[in-house]
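Newbie here. two chains, one complex. Structure please?
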Amino acid sequence: MTGFAYLGALLVAIAAMALIDARWRLAFWRAPGAAAAAVGAGTVLLLLWDVVGIGFGVFFRGDSEFATGIVLAPELPIEEPVFLTFLCYLTLVAVLGAERALASRDATASRDTLPSSDETDAASRPHRGHA
Amino acid sequence: MTYALICLPFLAVAVVIAVIASRRMTARERRRRWIATAIAAAILLALTALFDSLMIAAGLFGYADGTRLGPTVGLAPVEDFAYPIAAVLIVPAVWTLVRRRTLERVPRDERAPRAG
């Protein structure tokens, strides 16, 4: 059973990320196609990177008791694409979550002033004194 | 050295895609994206230092002798930090490029000022 510890932990982490995503409608719960493309493209890039590293003999699979031992290719365990998917999903949620927080902070800052326009609104810009 | 050299082309691809996406944004979106990227990168790098070390300690993977530059953070070789850096550049960039394309197909009238 311990052989599934790493894979299981990754799947739990992905599920937890999905809960955050669903709660704040950040990625798959906002634009599923764009989220899938973003996580997919990131995962493919990082997986290619792994394959090149394995090809040059940089990485090798450890014989950890926490891994299933199932491999997709020599030195490439089944856990690796799952890990990379998690990393990319976490990345997307972190960036979009930070953007959401920044946007709501900006909205709060400008709500107290007159209706703003991009042309005239200096309220959100730092005051630079008189020229 | 081998590992560091392998990182370069992948980092380059991520940087190029991030710049392409950034050029499609308004100034405000771009500013927000780079601040958000810096925040996310700080989180990802800290998590990498912790969990990469744990994964190496657990014997999930290893590195061949003589392929690394040498410096590590915990047990994590510095080259491993190129992964989250590439991810934080390319993943939101692809999100933006796909979203932009989808939104352009359905023109939003509040974006374009009405000409009379």
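Moderator note: The longest strand of chain A covers residues 59-61. The mean pLDDT of chain A is 88. Thread marked as resolved.
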